[in-house]
Amino acid sequence: xxxxxxxxxxxxxxxxxxxxxxxxxxxxxxxxxxxxxxxxxxxxxxxxxxxxxxxxxxxxxxxxxxxxxxxxxxxxxxxxxxxxxxxxxxxxxxxxxxxxxxxxxxxxxxxxxxxxxxxxxxxxxxxxxxxxxxxxxxxxxxxxxxxxxxxxxxxxxxxxxxxxxxxxxxxxxxxxxxxxxxxxxxxxxxxxxxxxxxxxxxxxxxxxxxxxxxxxxxxxxxxxxxxxxxxxxxxxxxxxxxxxxxxxxxxxxxxxxxxxxxxxxxxxxxxxxxxxxxxxxxxxxxxxxxxxxxxxxxxxxxxxxxxxx
Length: 309
Ligand SMILES: Nc1ncnc2c1ncn2[C@@H]1O[C@H](COP(=O)(O)OP(=O)(O)OP(=O)(O)O)[C@@H](O)[C@H]1O
Fold this sequence. Notes:
- It is a single chain.
- The chain is α/β, with parallel strands linked by helices and 309 residues long.
- It contains 11 helices and 14 strands.
- It has helices spanning 43-50, 72-76, 94-104, 109-122, 138-149, 168-183, 195-198, 218-224, 238-246, 271-280, 295-307, and strands at 3-14, 17-28, 32-36, 58-63, 66-67, 79-83, 156-160, 187-192, 203-208, 211-216, 229-235, 251-257, 260-265, 285-291.
- The strands form 3 sheets. A 6-stranded mixed sheet has the order 6-7-8-3-9-10, with helices on both faces. Strands 2-1-4-5 form a 4-stranded antiparallel sheet.
């Protein structure tokens, strides 16, 4: 069996509100699959259906061959789950949290000691076993929460915005652990808002208000999705320039990107045309060049396209 997760036409309605609409995707065994989408786009609802916590309104899904609607007890023992809220007991020590989750997941008694040692090393928590969890910094708490979610050696790890609220160094350390787990064969489905993190996934699904807008590898998304070109411009007045650029016929969109502007233009845009237009409007140009689309450009494009339907 090549796919760890197979989701077909999954729909979830809450009364007359459709939170997830006919969503289909597969996650290959051992892949790091990034599930992206703005707040409220249905990512958590999909994860909750995969875990069997809520029943789909229609559609089907299989996790390691088990049916998500009828075999969720079997599925749960193969899954590790971690959310942004971390689900740690703040007044327990690091070790007590690990012991607690080892009990919840029925880890055999003779394996607990080794498993804890392995997790403390993985999470860079050696020496902090007896610290009260509430005294840990964000990054340590995050890695402890990850450790608790994998203490039973799950085949699949579901991570719902696991890196929110921690600093970039802790995020990097966290991702290093994710890669190591993936190399060991663990399948990972991770939701994130961070585009740099999305780029580290093998495959990406972009969810927007319940609908999948695109599914592909990060590179294919950057190469195939945008029908047009991205021009990066640095000017003296970014906001004024964005408003001006949006009035140009060949410009489809313009938005702030870092310290500059990313302009989505029609294919084969003549840079001189953009330069002359901005100069005529008294904008000083520091730099203008065509660039390859980033994932952020791709997602802005997909959302604009969807909104203009
Ligand atoms: N039990 C529920 N009853 C009613 N509406 C719900 C329920 N659970 C989720 N929703 C709604 O479904 C939509 C999708 O929510 P969901 O939490 O899946 O989105 P999300 O992409 O995970 O967002 P976030 O990034 O904010 O967690 C939202 O509009 C939410 O309010």
